[in-house]
Amino acid sequence: MEEKEIERISLLDLDKIVRTAKRYCVKIAIIGGYAVRAYTEGYRYTKDIDMVIVQEGLNRITSLLSQLKYRCKRTGFGLRGLKKINDDFIDLHISIDRVFDASTNQSYPATMALFRKAKTLKASGYYEENRKMSVKIPVISLEELLLLKLMTEGRDKDTTDIVSLLIDQAKSVNLKNLLTQVGQAKLAGHFIHRISSVLVDVREGLVKKTWEGMTGSRLQWKQEREIVRFMKELYQKLRTERR
Fold first, then answer.
1. Under a CB-based contact definition with an 8 Å cutoff, are residues 199 and 232 in contact?
2. CB–CB of 14/123 below 8 Å?
3. How do residues 38-82 score in pLDDT, each as one tens digit?
4. Exposed/middle/buried for 51, CB within 10 Å: 0-12, 13-18, 19+?
5. Are 153 and 128 members of one domain?
6. Is residue 88 helix, strand or coil?
7. Are 4 and 70 in a shared domain?
8. DSSP 8-state code for residue 144
9. Residues 93 and 109 in one domain
10. What band does 15 get if pLDDT is binned at 50, 70 and 90?
11. What is the CATH number of the domain that holds 77?
12. What φ, ψ does residue 126 adopt, rounded to 5°?
């Protein structure tokens, strides 16, 4: 099955999950690739669904996932669902209480404030045929989304998402809020390390290479300069606050 058809099915499932959560007053917030699509032009293809949910609403969502043909199992930090579609699949991750990143063993707490700050935005498809499939979703705040993406390491899709957010939203990021959230989660040291790594990757051309491989487009010099400016400012503020 073609990617654009799998994307269409994924968007339909996402819409049903969000509508069910709203019907039963279940607090959820979308993270991951679809959240990035909601904040940006949508520079890469995604089919996977990632969200944060309160424990009390898990049974409602699990029942729906079963109807949608997802095979689910509990994990240490929530629930994972897999929907087989011919030779491909849609991967679904539900985080409860905290968002855990396996690439760094770091985590971010999913407090009630996270759900209060979530915004209702529209996410659509990457492929032209699915661009009109606009799904209204509750999305984690811009600052927390960027935080979650920077928390990871070694994944091309996350590097691409960081670049996407900074290209389209750098001037909208509230640095004060971002610094507060990093500090409260005790991630300042980790973030100083991660930002240093990103700046090295930019300098060595790895970010540009990753971007071109994931999006099929070239990263412009002005865009690269904005990424470096933002990262350096965030790095300096983190170092200052740690003194």
1. yes
2. yes
3. 999 999 999 999 999 988 888 888 989 999 999 999 998 899 999
4. buried
5. no
6. strand
7. yes
8. H
9. yes
10. very high
11. 3.30.460
12. -80, -40
